[in-house]
Amino acid sequence: MYITDDIRYIGVNDHQVDLFEGQYVVPNGIAYNSYVILDEKIAVMDTVDQNFTQPWFDNLAAVLGERRPDYLIVQHMEPDHAANVDKFLSAYPDATVVASAKAFSMMKGFFGTDYAERRMVVGEGDTLSLGRHSLTFVTAPMVHWPEVIVTYDSCDKVLFSADGFGKFGALDVEEPWEDEARRYYIGIVGKYGPQVQALLKKAAALDIRKICPLHGPVLTENLGHYIRLYDLWSSYTPEDQGVVIAYTSVYGHTKVAAEMLADELRKRGVPSVTIHDLARCDMAKAVEDAFRYDKLVLATTTYNADIFPFMRTYLDKLTERAFQNRTVAFIENGSWAPTANKVMKEKFANSKDLTFCKNDVTILSALNDTSVAQIMALAEELAESYAPVKVQADFMDPGALYSIGYGLYVVTSNDGTKDNGLIVNTVTQLTDKPNRVAVTINKLNYSCDIIAKTGMLNVSTLSQDAPFKVFEHFGFQSGRNVDKFNGYTGVQRSNNGLLFLDKYANSYISCKVIQRIDLQTHMMFICDVTQCVKLSDTETMTYSYYHKNVKPQPDADKKGFVCKICGYVYEGAELPEDIVCPLCKHGAADFEPL
Length: 594
Ligand code: FEO
Known about the structure:
The protein has 16 helices and 32 strands. The chain is of the alpha/beta class. The radius of gyration is 33 Å and the shape is flat. The model has no long low-confidence stretch (mean pLDDT about 95). MU-OXO-diiron binds near residues 78, 144, 163 and 214. MU-OXO-diiron (FEO) binds near residues 78, 80, 81, 144 and 163.
């Protein structure tokens, strides 16, 4: 199978395995992937499981033809991939084995030799040229063993990702990638989220077009989707909203409670409700679901003054995989001394960022009015966060308008004798063919008069490095009274003769007014863009960034009112109803008490 013109697949499908890695059921089998890169030199990427030695050698021979391989690159020493290293090196005595130093230590353990006479030890950033193909090795410790490296081929832009981005399921079975990839990831690599995050950061610096993992299909399209899921899983962020109920039940009473809670959650519109009987289900699937969704309910019986064995195993599997950042609820059953909730909570003593529900449920042998009421209360609590936001349709909340995102700009103009500039947050691109923008200015501002008369303006887009003094300079004084550019540095003239800021701005746009729209208090100028120039890559200063990071916080000891728009402070016990902010010209509605 061709991966690219030079990269071929020589892996195998395993439908005989009963338990993968000795514990995971794989109803659709598993693939052990291996690849060959054909160039002036030939590299083989990993081997396969010991039960498929001959089919793998056959696949390799079919790709090689008359040629002989130069390198065996061993990315991961777990025997599902490395079982045939020794046999390969016997079959091809001129080949060199390439791996990390730790991998060679493991080879000594597995094969009794570390191949000191015919090896190449590689570490972070080391490269190997095959001709056109240059391979770069990236260390990926604990994804999923400590010796792991992944390999980037910059020629075909292929990442050989070892166990990363793998999944259960043989390649001759069609099935969605996500479920079996998630069960594989959470089960096998779930404990090592920080290490996967570190690898994702390194991968982000590479131009990757294809991912070739050691299990599962080669990923060739929509790579952002798979990388996003890996980012969610490895950062322990819930992927979906919903409640997972995991229970054990001896005589069925706890099961009835779990199913009653599931029904109540569904009635209350919880987006997804999943239920697992831990004694009978695939435990790896129950673990996967606990990591997939944002809420988990644990229901079990008190047993030998502890909890039922399957629940104890389940909690061990969660905590050893660093289960965190979720909401957890507890249901216990006990005929004479129920203690399961206490025991279960203690199991999470070292877990991070778990929120326990307020409503515990205690069943004394069988459900009764009290425990049913507790289940209803728990259902309410769990469902609450999924309920739609209550909207008061007839309520005018000015805060909603502050949620609109704005940038901040200095608009410059010239009245014929002097340059002027002011701060606005009202610049919007209207069309791109032709390039046209709207700039809206309060009529009380001097700039409004100038632009109405001259029909010309420049917009300098402020960047996040602009200090508060820029806002004071252009926003807190009027061009009617001062010459804002007298002695001001950090400006140049554009083709239209107007000034633009070349400091604290990341771009400027020169505009010619083609239409005016009178908005009573403000004038909207519709403009053709006559020039537009990018000055830097610094992020644009947004209105919310300004408020959070630039605008000084009001002095708590002062009595008065602060303008929410520009920060002007009116000192006094009462705010005049007809106040107009002397700086930004906004009215009383935009002031708030200090
Ligand atoms: Fe597929 Fe960690 O071996």
